[in-house]
């Protein structure tokens, strides 16, 4: 039965975190590292043919056994069975003697959704629509649930994972830029949301530099809004992560003394008309 317009054979793939797949709401059981590697490369190819030799190299590298091609074929058979068990009735993995590909007509990919959101955010930023860009960049980063291709391993997939992680860091830095710009323009609520999203993404990616910059920007924003306690917390976090500018700003804040009032909220804000 089709529910709310979703085709019963609709498949979704996730690579921005642990590798997973589902048919509708039913999770596909993918067992073993070899199957995860093969599925990951097929998903990354987005419908293009992946040569058997590439799959063999990804699974075994230079230590491929003589039976490697046969084992890949058996793993593909097992993947097809797993998708059928989850409710997929069509042909999902097409194959020839030379390789395999995903039939992606009804497939959803978190990587593609990430790319689409980032492209839309880039366009919004180029048009000067900073608030919309912040929402779109934040939505793209929210798709991540862990390290890219988590639990797969292998040279080829690790290279692909590194590219995806580099993209995540780039988007995180773009969101930081948007957040700082919103703060400069007086859109304080939107700036705080963007900077918090960037901080969460940076911490999730283990990106110390962007995380320190996010803490510094949040500390400065809270100083602007006279939220001194929150400012100290973020500036200390930035200093702990090696952000030297935060050290000086903490010292300047300390010189203001304990008599400074908190949370005055008297700073003029931009409002959406």
Automatic annotation (TrEMBL):
One of its GO terms (molecular function) is DNA binding. Residues 1-104 form the OmpR/PhoB-type domain. It holds the Pfam family Trans_reg_C. InterPro entries: AfsR-DnrI-RedD_regulator, BTAD, OmpR/PhoB-type_DNA-bd, Sig_transdc_resp-reg_C-effctor, TPR-like_helical_dom_sf, WH-like_DNA-bd_sf. Belongs to the AfsR/DnrI/RedD regulatory family. PANTHER family: TRANSCRIPTIONAL REGULATOR REDD, TRANSCRIPTIONAL REGULATOR REDD-RELATED. This is Winged helix-turn-helix domain-containing protein. It comes from Streptomyces triculaminicus.
